[in-house]
């Protein structure tokens, strides 16, 4: 589904990604873990086209997308959530989702801009998205009044409204209470199943990693230390030394 080969990224004299290669299969959940500063977010930015790599290639469903912009990658099916949720703070839950659905409709129809008015089918769809992220009871609440967990889930809903094929999530449960975290894990497992999604995520919480991941890649100082299932990773001596040993 998504593959990258020999990705290098420097910030000035600092080498942040040093030859990263990976291959994520369709409907797989692939998690990138590693200590702070390992390069996980930078790798996500390169894969989603937010920043260019210095060298290396990225392919998506067999197409070389290395030189495509982030928005062109969204058109091809990339959905992305961030460490700090990006929502429209003054707009309600419903409006945030409607705006995403309208954007998706415009993308498909290439039609003229329509008034932002949650009527008819789009409103029904938005309510359905809100239900999927457990926010159907907060449709009229402005996003700025939502709890941290609800804001992260709203961002997930906005991303789902764009009907991605691959969902890239940067620390989807960071800063959440245990109950919020469990609710979010359940939602991710559900939507993955219902929408046949391929998922890539970064995560520090090993409990979340174990519940969501099919395979895990461990990074340290911009390099891949190991790739495998959770038990394979746990048995890897280099990983124990470099990462899990720190816990
Ligand atoms: P965390 O788990 O803390 O989010 P990470 O593994 O996602 O860390 P990155 O955010 O990718 O790590 O950062 C990797 C390295 O690159 C760090 O040393 C960071 O300071 C550096 N870095 C990231 N963005 C920039 C930038 N725009 N300019 C210069 N250095 C940067």
Automatic annotation (TrEMBL):
Residues 2-246 form the ABC transporter domain. It comes from Microvirga puerhi. PROSITE patterns: ABC_TRANSPORTER_1, ABC_TRANSPORTER_2. GO terms for molecular function: ATP binding. Belongs to the ABC transporter superfamily. Keywords: ATP-binding, Nucleotide-binding, Transport. Gene3D superfamilies: P-loop containing nucleotide triphosphate hydrolases. The keyword Nucleotide-binding applies. The keyword Acetylation does not apply. Pfam families: ABC_tran, BCA_ABC_TP_C. This is ABC transporter ATP-binding protein.
